[in-house]
């Protein structure tokens, strides 16, 4: 008991330490600070034994911006961050490095045990969280399932029913009475309904806003948030000690995961009475992936409200197709809508970063030396903000950047963009098997909603981007809706 009290006191002191302004980052390739490692231009100041923990501590609540700032100063678009008690973290926005990690030397960059430790309690041995033979066998199964016409047709019918009979009526009711809605919350509820119907054959009816948040959705979101925050601990031992002692956030995580497992098991058992389905691991993965589409659409709706000319062009494409009834063929023609979605995800990627762990010593194409066990992170959020990749206008929301230059009077053609420059759906052997299905869902929802409603955000301040397992908008997207007259 005394040991437990002592460890809890240590954790408390570390947590207090994080709130102190310990160190102001000063990065200049022309200057060298005493006792600082030679390569300040390729990362933050690093000190013997403790590495860059002081800078990391100061910036742990703004890691996206901090990493991006450091990467802009790096000639190689790669930085190295050594931390106390951990192996180095190498962060890159260099597409050549990304291709090397995700494809060329794929087997030397598995998820690795440190990653699976972070998410193992939540995701278990599902495809998102494993390597080697287990990943390969699950990948083959998933690729087969997502390539079947029957699944695509079923998913589309579920999507259509949920949009027409639930999502649109909810938005119409809000528009009729002038009610403010959190569009991010509505889209998450919608996506949760769809994924549960498709993967579990179960209808949680989350779009009934008169009911409390579904306990499975609430527990999963809690577990996902706490699992993600483990990765921002400056000393990994902290969350591991908390898990052993079953205190604080780790106790809350354990309770949330227990709720997820119990509820999914109940659903699966009930479903098995009429149809034999999987173990439930794939359902947990689907619950994670549902947030990526809702996040992408939330940011797109906000960006469209700020860019009226883009919204008008999107409507010009969508409205004639809506009159025909959106089906597979009509969705394929929505190239401008797809460009808008890609541009929104460039600026606000649903997954801000993804990490692997080197199985052996290696050298990245830009010359960065990697030691066995190093965490190697490619960084889509930063990649979307690199002038070297997207030009001086990288900060602008410009869907036209996704098109080939075409003569006037012809239908614009989306140009091929390397997935290693835009790794939103990963790339190489681990590329998302549900990529096209995700675009189908997002196109259908965006077209159906925008053709019927004008979306007016209530808050005029710029939203805050929050990266967790999947990113979201802090505080949601509060909007008023106006029915469009036709």
Summarize the structure.
By secondary structure, the protein is an alpha+beta fold. The protein has helices at residues 2-18, 53-59, 63-73, 95-104, 113-123, 132-146, 149-177, 183-200, 215-230, 237-245, 248-272, 281-306, 308-324, 328-332, 335-347, 380-383, 387-390, 435-450, and strands at residues 78-81, 89-92, 181-182, 354-357, 362-363, 369-370, 375-378, 453-457, 465-466, 472-473, 478-483. It folds into two domains: 1-84, no CATH class; 133-483, Orthogonal Bundle (Cytochrome p450), CATH 1.10.630.
Explain the overall architecture.
- By secondary structure, the protein is of the alpha+beta class.
- It contains 18 helices and eleven strands.
- The protein has helices at 2-18, 53-59, 63-73, 95-104, 113-123, 132-146, 149-177, 183-200, 215-230, 237-245, 248-272, 281-306, 308-324, 328-332, 335-347, 380-383, 387-390, 435-450, and strands at residues 78-81, 89-92, 181-182, 354-357, 362-363, 369-370, 375-378, 453-457, 465-466, 472-473, 478-483.
- The strands form four sheets. It has a four-stranded mixed β-sheet with strand order 1-2-7-4, with helices on both faces. The chain has a three-stranded antiparallel β-sheet with strand order 3-11-8. The protein has a two-stranded antiparallel sheet with strand order 5-6.
- Keywords: Heme, Iron, Metal-binding, Monooxygenase, Oxidoreductase.
- One of its GO terms (cellular component) is endoplasmic reticulum membrane.
Q: Note the total helix count.
A: 18
CATH class of the largest domain: Mainly Alpha
Roughly how many Å is the radius of gyration? 23 Å
| Overall strand count | 11
Helix content: 40-55%
Order of helices and strands: HHHEEHHHHEHHHHHHHHEEEEHHHEEEE
* Count of the separate structural domains: 2
**Poorly predicted ranges:** 16-41
What is the average of the pLDDT values? Answer: 83
Oligomer state equals single chain
Gap between N and C termini: 71 Å
- Structural class comes to alpha+beta
The CATH homologous superfamily of the largest domain: Cytochrome P450
| Architecture (CATH level 2) name of the largest domain | Orthogonal Bundle
């Amino acid at each position: 008991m005394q040991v437990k009290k002592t460890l809890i006191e240590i954790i408390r002191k570390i947590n207090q330490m994080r709130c102190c302004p310990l160190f102001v980052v000063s990065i200049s390739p022309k200057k060298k600070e005493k006792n600082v490692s030679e390569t300040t231009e390729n990362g933050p100041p690093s000190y013997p034994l403790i590495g860059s923990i002081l800078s990391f501590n100061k910036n742990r609540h703004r890691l996206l911006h901090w990493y991006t700032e450091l990467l802009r100063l790096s000639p190689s678009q790669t930085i190295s961050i050594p931390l106390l008690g951990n192996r180095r973290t190498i962060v890159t926005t260099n597409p050549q490095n990304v291709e090397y990690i995700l494809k060329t030397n794929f087997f030397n960059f598995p998820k690795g045990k440190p990653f699976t430790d972070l998410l193992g309690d939540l995701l278990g041995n599902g495809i998102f969280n494993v390597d080697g033979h287990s990943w390969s066998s699950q990948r083959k199964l998933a690729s087969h399932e997502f390539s079947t016409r029957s699944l695509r047709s079923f998913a589309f019918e579920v999507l259509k029913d949920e949009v027409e009979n639930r999502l649109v009526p909810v938005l119409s009711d809000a528009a009729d009475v002038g009610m403010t809605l959190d569009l991010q919350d509505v889209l998450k509820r919608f996506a949760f309904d769809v994924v549960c119907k498709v993967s579990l054959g179960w209808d949680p009816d989350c779009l009934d806003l008169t009911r409390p948040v579904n306990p499975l959705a609430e527990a999963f979101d809690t577990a996902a948030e706490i699992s993600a925050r483990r990765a921002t601990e400056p000393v990994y031992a902290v969350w591991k000690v908390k898990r052993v002692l079953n205190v604080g956030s780790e106790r809350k995580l354990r309770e949330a995961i227990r709720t997820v497992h119990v509820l999914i098991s109940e659903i699966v058992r009930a479903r098995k009475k009429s149809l034999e389905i999987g173990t439930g691991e794939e359902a947990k993965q689907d619950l994670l992936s549902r947030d990526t589409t809702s996040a992408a659409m939330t940011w797109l709706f906000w960006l469209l409200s700020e860019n009226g000319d883009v919204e008008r062009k999107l409507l010009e494409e969508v409205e004639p197709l809506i009159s025909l009834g959106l089906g597979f063929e009509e969705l394929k023609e929505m190239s401008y809508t797809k460009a808008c979605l890609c541009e929104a995800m460039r600026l606000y990627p649903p997954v801000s970063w993804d990490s692997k762990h080197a199985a052996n010593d290696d050298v990245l194409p830009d010359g960065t030396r990697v030691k066995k066990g190093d965490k190697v992170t490619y960084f889509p959020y930063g990649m979307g903000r690199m002038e070297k990749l997207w030009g001086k206008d990288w900060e602008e929301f410009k869907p036209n950047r996704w098109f080939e230059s075409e003569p006037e009077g012809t239908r614009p053609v989306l140009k091929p963009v390397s997935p290693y420059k835009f790794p939103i759906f990963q790339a190489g052997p681990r590329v998302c098997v549900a990529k096209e299905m995700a675009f189908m869902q997002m196109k259908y929802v965006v077209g159906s909603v925008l053709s019927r409603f004008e979306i007016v955000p209530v808050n005029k301040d710029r939203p805050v981007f929050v990266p967790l397992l999947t990113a979201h908008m802090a505080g949601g997207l509060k909007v008023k809706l106006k029915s469009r007259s036709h």
